[in-house]
Amino acid sequence: MLKRLFAFLSLSISLSVLTPIVDASNAFAGQWPLLPEGNSPEAGEIWGELPNGLRYVIVPTDSAAEAVSLRLMVAAGRAQEEKGKAGVSQLLIDLANFGTSGVSRDQLVQFKLANGINPQSGFFSEVDLRHTLFRLDLEEPRSGGVDIGLGLLYEIAAAPRFDEVSFGEVKARMEYFSGLGISGYEPKQAVKERVLLRSSPYSKLSDTDIRASLPGIELSDVKSFWSNWYKADRMVLVVAGVVESEQVESLIKEKFSTLESSAELVPLPSKDNKFRSGGDVETADSRSSTAGLWISNTVEVGSLFKRASELEYYTLDFIGRIAQSYATDSESLPNSIVEMYGDFAAVSINRRGPVMSLLEQILSADKAVHRIAQHGVRAEDLELAKAEYLNLRYSYDMEVSSKEWSPLVADRLVRCVLEQIPFRYGAKLSDYLQGIISRMTLESVKERCAQLFREKALSYYLELPDGVPLGAKTIAKRLKGMRKSYDFTWEQAGSADQDWNFGAGFESGGMVKSTEIIRFEEYPVLKYEFANNLRMNLVRSDAFKGRVQMMVSLGNGTSEMGIANPAYDALLRTLMLSTKIGNGVEAPTVKDVLRDKGIDNIEAGVTKDHLYWSGVASDDAAVESFFSTILIWMVTGNLNEENFNDELEKLETLVEDSFEENSSVQLDTLLYAQDDRLRNFFSKEDVEALKFSDMQQWLGAVRENAYIEVTVVGDVLPRTVLRDVRKTFGSAPSRSGKVLQPRHGKKVKWNEPGVSRDTFKKGITVGNITLLFPQVGEKSCTSDRVGSVLLPLFEEHLKRALASNPAFAGNLSVELVGEQMIPLSNAVKVRLFCSKEDAAEAEAMMLQAAGSFEASLTEPLLIAAERNALLGLKRIARSQPSLVNLFKQSQGKPNTLGCVVDLLENGFGLSFDEYKDLAARQFSEENVRGVSLMPAK
User: Fold this and answer.
1) The predicted structure's pLDDT at residue 180
2) Are 296 and 459 a contacting pair, CB within 8 Å?
3) Residues 462, 468, 473, 474: is their CA dihedral positive or negative?
4) Following DSSP, what letter does each residue of 533-578 receive, concatenated?
5) Tens of pLDDT, residues 650-666
6) Is the pLDDT confidence value at 386 over 90?
7) How far apart are the first and last CA of the chain?
8) What are the residues facing 519 on neighbouring strands?
């Protein structure tokens, strides 16, 4: 590892101290602190306001990795732009990604990398109608890291970089993307207003308006917007995480007290409460090629700081999620669909999809809301929804999470400021929600649903792409006619419990052969090996309260299949979930059985490494149920040829309709034609190669011979899981399947170096240039992972090199590919979409930039990038699915888990000169394999 410690950039700011205005107020009106009635700040929390009007809140949390999250809100957005100057507020925040008067772009990139932030993601800044938000999430900030983060936010507020070169680049990029209609500048609040209000001056602005205004915007306009609106009394600063509150407050006072207040505090524009009438059906032009549908009801709830109103808010949130899941046929609770609009709460069920299925979507959603209005929620659904909603307390859910992750707490505080939702977190919020949800009865929910979703209270808003000949009257008439024929017969799911005969499948006994304990971050990982070549991994942790995640793997997936391709994987995933187990026509599917046993988030799939099943339960009692169901599938589950043919037909239709199919096949053929394994891994779906007999034979071999690996992550006792494994898989006969490893096998036959050129005939006007830079050096843990160190630096270097052409810089994507290959075949893949006329210039610029990458590296940037890569590995420990996936290829050595543990313990072990040598060889012209594929006409 690089020996020299990372030298954090220091901000030397010399700004004149401005006289603060005494007794200033803040443009974000409302209660402060944002606490429910009768509540006071917790120990360590500080809610303050500076004499110049800037509000600040500091909330210490026990965040993972000692993370600290910073948010700076400014009460200025699109609504504050002058007429004819659309885009000024966005240009200002884009400039912040180039640094400030006191912080260079290199210093900014270095700081982001060292704190686990992707340099290409900016400050996670966003502009809405009435506010601008800057975000910084620091992972394991070293000494002084929080001070520097606060200094960066202060610099953005006090001293942006206003130079013509940076301004020209951000303006050119916005002009280019607004010309394509994909600038992404439309604020979320504008979408909400368009759906809920009869009229809004902001919701009508589009990329066309931005493109028309940009030629008239000068750097002086951006300066003017900043000097008018970036004032202390229009700001709120949020700090959440592992911090010393008094120390942070002292730093805030030292820096932010120097900001100037407004000469006259201009309040935020008042909100128009002229909502669309209940029973209305309205249509509008879509901003994309897809159709959108919103079914809304707006309820006056009053101030949420009153207990009854806050109770109503969470009741609406809970019922709204259930209604959205019904309308979209979702198997789990979606994100919140309740939005606050002043004293009103808007419940908006929404769907978006292709125009081809528009009427089907409308009728499906309409039928769902009428069903829930008449019948409420099914008893079994209500109990499942209660459990799932309460489980969200331990996930990243802005509405109901009580997990003390600093980004989550910071985002909750932002939402509280903007929408005046009382601030609760931790055990307090957990207990509060438990009390609300547990008291809900089936009858009370039914009564509330009848009020919320009655027909005359709902407004229907549809966005339709150009050329769709449907008007509001036509849709309303169609709905009225169809409602008479709705069938609300609810089919009850039958019990899946049956008496299974296991003797036919497994006969001999199996005992634990060896036990190993590995430390992964804060978790002990217990690894058991059985005498029958079965492995068990257990990560015991109470960090994921209310969730036990399980996976059963059967190796080695499709690694040795000649017909394996993405279509095979897609078809098998679908068929596994619908496979019937047991005997008889009425036998349930695997999915039915698992859901009947209280297991959700059910997934099945196949990779190069393994065929797998995974699911989530609320406690360890379901572990044996999960294992036994998979065992039943292994013994009795069989593919159904009729089902196979039905799913194959659907897949064929999907592939035929896929975008740019012909050119993708050509591209993959040109890139990977020299090696069958590469071609199979990267190729487009080969539907014609799928045969029922082949899949049936392969599945049979996997179930009979492949090794079995069981993984459990959650608060589960080892002896409990060991008992469950013994009762199920422990008696399986010895597994004879080989254990293939990512680094074993012959070297990949990459194409000859150089860039091939070809054309395609499909009727689109844009082609692409794809460059591959295969991994160089001997295969090892470090070599396989070092690409994650160089990747962000390489992408930053390319984007700077292409900055003179915003179309190139904006259409560039850089990624690592081949990590799942057997043998492992990593490569950096660069893709640029461009026109045929620009192809030669774009190719030359990309190759030249790649060749100069090694010379651009500096030791501080590499140290920061290496730390960023290690933080990415540590992040695995904070995600249950990531922990489970870590055990792919864990049999034999070396393995994925072993590599991760080794890197976290020992680092990458490369010196600065070794990094430079590696970059010079990998990104050289002698190592590039590429294709320039352009339209024929």
Assistant:
1) 72
2) yes
3) negative
4) SEEEEEEE-SSSTT-EEEEEEEETTTTT-TT--HHHHHHHHHHHHH
5) 777 766 654 444 566 67
6) yes
7) 51
8) 524
